Structures are given as C-alpha cells and as structure tokens.
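Reagents: none. Just compute today. Isochorismatase-like domain-containing protein.
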Amino acid sequence: MNRGQAGTVFIFMDFQNYILENFLPPERAEQVVKQAEAVLAAARKAGCFIIHVAVCFRPGYPEINGRNKMFSWIRDSNMADPSSRGIAFVDRMAPQPEEPVVQKRRVGAFGSTDLDMILRAKGIEKVFLAGVATSHVVLTTFNQAFDLDYDLTVIHDACADGDETAHVFLTETFFPKLGNVLSSRDVLAFLEG
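Predicted 3D structure written out:
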C-alpha cells in the first residue's frame, strides 16, 4: 500500500441482493455494482483496509418497529429473511475472509455497530464511502462519520439511489460542503498513485 493510503478505509455498504433488486432499476443496479466492483478490486490490489456493511435482521424481525415505514415494508414482504439469498452480498461484491463485515439493524453504518471501534483500532482517519442507497445508508453514514471527525470521500458513481434527483443533490450539493466527492476513475488514480 502506498504511504498516502495508510490510515484509509474503503467501506462498501448494502451491496446485498434484496437491496439492489428492490430499490434500484436493474440497469442502475448493474451500473453501480460495476463501478463499486472496480474500486473494490483496486483497493484490494493496493492493500487497503476494506469493510463491508450489511443491513440484516434476526428471524422474525424483532428489531423492526411498526413506526418505521421502510423497515416495516421490508419485514412485511420478508425480503430480508436471514436464511435467504436476498440477504447475501451480490457475488461480485462478496467480502474476502480478511475483510470485516459490519452488520447493522438501522440505516447508518455507525449506529448500534462496532464500526467506529474498528476504525479507531486501525488508526483510520480517511474514509471512502460507496453504497446503496445514496439517500439512505450513504447519507446517514456520511453524517455520522462527519460528527466523528473522519475525513470523508463519497465515490459518487459507486453510489446509487432509486431517486436520481436525490442522488444528484447529495453528490453535487450536500456532500461537497462537508467532505469530498470523487468519481471511481479519480479513486482508481489515487490507488494507483
């Protein structure tokens, strides 16, 4: 790993079958997985620290409150059954054995998880984010990480949202005010440099 990448983590969030199949049009899902997969491969080649995040629940969904509209819909449709193919990471984004998987029960990757503990134990300061959906896991995790004083970069084309207007607003207006926004091409150049 290059000296410039020490203290850096790449976090790939919610690249799970049920999310990609239910929250994005198929062509958009394919496009975001392709971009994220390229970054994942380059980060691995560069020896970067990589974390995968998955939203998952116990059998019977005891963590889901009926007041939570999105999670109630997931529960009622049983799309995130713990034993199902849906809950698994899409094959092309599957973690390697040495890459930690953080399991969350809410939208953001930091809330009720040990993600911050892992990052601090590894001396991480710079965080690259990729995930689905931009207005959910990416936005919430970005805000949580910002409050924890991490140096943030969102990889805009390795993120996607069912609402393209929300994606554009977040990546072009909101995120740049508090962190960095780069394309996967820019990130690949960083990793190779």
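The chain has one domain: 3-192.
Action item: order primers for follow-up constructs.
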